[in-house]
Every structure is written in structure tokens, then in C-alpha cells.
Give the backbone structure.
Amino acid sequence: MRQQTKTTGRWERRVLLEKYYRELKQLGLQGLLDKLSLALGLAMIVTDNRGRPLMQNRHLSPFCKVLRGHPRGRTRCEASRLASVRAATVAADVVLHTHAGLVHIAAPLRVNGETMAVVLAGGNATLVPPEKEIVQAIARDTGLAEEDLLAAAARVPVWTEARLRKVADAVFAVAAIIGELLHARLQLQQRVEELTALFSFARTVSASLDVSQVATWALEAVLALTGATSGSVMMLPEPLGEGRKAEVAATVESRHEFRVIPAAEVIASVEKEARAAHFDSRPGEATREEKRPAVALPLVVGSRVTGILTIAGKPKGARFSEDEAAFLTTLGTGLGLALENARLYSTLRQHYVRVVRALAAALEAKDRYTQGHSLRVAQWARACAVHLGLSIEEQEHAYTAGLLHDIGKIGVSETVLAKPAPLTEEERAHVEQHPVLGAKILEPAGLPAPVIAAVRHHHEDYDGGGYPDGLAGEDIPLLARIIRVADAYDAMSSERPYRPAFTRERAREELARNAGRQFDPRVVEVFLRLPPEETDALAVSGPHPDIPLAFGPSSATGRA
């Protein structure tokens, strides 16, 4: 297990180093090194901490050019470079050494106290003139022409030790500045990435008011940001008494066995401390990668932890760093607020639905003929909306409008609603005001505009002969046209004070016969395609209210 940990640590460090090296190449250092080389009179290059060049060495001395022109000479130069890099990495300070009689300077390039690369300079100067015997020995070892190598060595300038030290200090300062510049660049880049991620994350979690959807979207976004492969969002209950239990709002995992749900003690710790908790999601396994290190993060609203975001499964079993945990905790604050808003919305919606049903029940309590009508109309209206391909929101609006379409009849006398004889003109005019009254009742409650419009216009005829505004065709809101068909079908197929119920077949015939006159033909077509057992199942819920609709001379309803 220790070997697995070391391997994982090396892999993480390698990834970090590669990121630094990419950034070094993008800093425009090649041009800077070229200018410094000319100014200092030394060849300069930056290597990684293994001695591999990250920049081109364009200002080699004539001696180095001759020496590197032969494979064995090039091998000696590369061995010298590696030795300089290793020495500077270990010493964490500027290192001076000679190779082939030439002076070389190696300065560590450090970021956050760690040597990430090395700045090398040299090969263009010596403290003493190269001895002829040494040059001849190098020529013999490398197979180079002795005359060429001696001529090149004679052109190497001799520096004083003071000058060399001054240049070495300058190279060390350059390395320090490059390290600071690289660190600042990466920090800025990280902040930009974090702000971009925060903005994108906030936009994602605020795009819905459904708790499960918000949690799932947020979880997918966090997994994409971190490279993790599984996670969960837990919602904590209100702190009220015994029997409190966290609920799973969403999970995402690559395989079922990788599902990560924090244990009760982890949940309790995160809730109590309001900070991240690190743990192994599969502690019984052998290697770090199999253990799948995880982190559980608090979702905080105000001063209370309302949920827990848990993720696991980074590549090669890598653990989540403290910086990652801190950033994810920041994301968790936004997620906590979004989930709390969604939960509050869900609670309000439940209250709203109960109020809607109470209003519908109050209406239907006025007489025995009103019982169950609004619910049946609502269910049929939603079924039609589904088959018409309307959105989830529009389907809900259709259902709500169906429940409340006759709410204005609260202002109509029970004696009129239950009258077995034909209505007088005055009574009919009174009844025909119920759509307008219903809309006025609903407007202060802040119901969606499409619902209010459907309530106001659910008695408009497709040919323009309806009420209250005489709208026709597509000018009638679609939801109102849907309610019109469902309402009429229920009116015809149910018992009325003045007539028995139509058979299912006759009610469907009346809808078809009046398509294009009273009803939208498209809505009628969709309604008639509903499985009969579905409409029958809803119809057996009991009698219902409604003032019967006029279907023309042959209509058996007899009342508008």
C-alpha cells in the first residue's frame, strides 16, 4: 500500500510539473533568454528538473559548438548538464562547476519553495586559460580534430572570479523572477478558471427549481471540474427532534459498486464541523486506487449545514487536495442556496396544490353534481397536453387550470347551479360571468398567467360564438381550448339536474360533430385518441359540477 501511495504521489507531481512546463513555454522566455545571453556573454537555457531542455540554446560558444558536433562530445556535454541540474535541485541554490575547462552556472527555478526547473548559463567563459593537455585529451576521447578544438579553446574569454560571482547572482535573480512570474501567472489562471467555474456552476444550479434536477446537474458539473467519477448529494432534514434522517437527492456513478454515500459518522462530522471530511469510499480494498479516496463537503445556508456533497474516484486513486476542498466548499455554498430555494419552492408548491384542491373542493361542495368534476377535467386536460407534446410546465398549467376552471361559480347561487329547469336570460347571463369572476379570484394569488387565461376563456367557442370575449380560433389560448373539450366531455357524460348522463359513445360523437364549431379540431382529435379505459377510469370518480354546454339544435344538454 505504501508503494501505491508513493506511485500516486509521483503521478500527481508529474502532472503538476507538466503544467508548469507548458506555462513556462508560453511565457515568452525564449526571447528573454536570447537577450540575456547576449548581455551576459553566456549561453542560457531552461531545463526541467530532469535536465531536459525546455528552450533552445542559441548562443553556444565556438568551443561548445565544436565539442557538440561529435556524438561522444555531445554525450559529455549532456552528462555535464544533467550533473548541474541535479546539483542545483538538491542544493536549492546557485551552483558553479567547470566542464572541459569552461565555467557553468546552474540556478534552481523554484515555485512555492519547490524546484520545478533549472536555469543554466555558461560554456562561454573560463577562470583560467584552458590547458593544452586537457584540450588534447578531450580531442582524443571524442575523436575531434585537435587543431579545431585548440583553436576554439583559444577564443574562450577568461573571467575574474568576482565577475563570475556577479553573473551567477544575476542568473539566480533571473531564475527567482521567472519562478515568481510563473507562480503569479498560474495563480491568476487558477482564479480565472475558478471564477469561470463559479459562474457556470451558478448558472447551472439556478436553471431549475426541482431539487433532484438541481442536485444532479450540480453533481455532474463538479465531477467534470475535478475529474472524479462518482458522487452524491444528501439533503439533511430540519433539526427537529428525534428520527432525523438524511435523504439522497442525487447520485452519479460509473458503476453501481462505485456509488458513494457517506456513512452516518461522516455525515454527522460534516454537519457538526461545517467543513470537508476526507475518507476512503471503499476502505476494505488494498490499493489507493481501489479504495477510491473521497471528500464530503458541507452545503451551507446561513449558519446551518443543509446538505452534503460527496465525490470520489479521481484518476489513479489521487486524494483531493485542501485547495480543491476549499474551492468545492465555495461551490457548495451556491449549491446549498440553490437546493434550499428548490426545497422551499417544492414546499410552497405543495401548499399551493393543497389550496387549489381546497378551492375546488369548496366549489364542488355546493351540490352533489359538482363532486369530482374539476379533478376529472384536470386529469383529462393534462393527458391532452401530454399528447399534444406540450412542455412539462404547460402540462402542469393545464392540470391547474382544469382544477380551477369553474372557481368563479363560487359566486353563483346554488339554486341556479342545481336548477332542473331551463335558465332564464338573467340567470344565464349571471352564470356566464363565472369565467371572468374566476380569473379575478385567481389574479391576486399570483398564479401563472396561462392558468388565469385558461380559466377566463374556457367557454370560448372555436367559431367565435362563446363567452366572455367572443374569441375565435387560435386567438383562444391553447390551454383554454383544451379545458373546453375536457369540460364539455365531462358535462355530457355525467348526470345533470335536468337530464341523465350521455353514454360514452354519444359524448364522443358530440365532440366530433362540434369540432371546428365549439371545439378546436386538433384538441378533439387528441382527446378522442385517449384510451377509453383511461377516460372511463377517471369518470367513475363520481358526479361533478358544470353548467351544460349548448351543442346546437340536436344537443341534449339544452343549457349554455
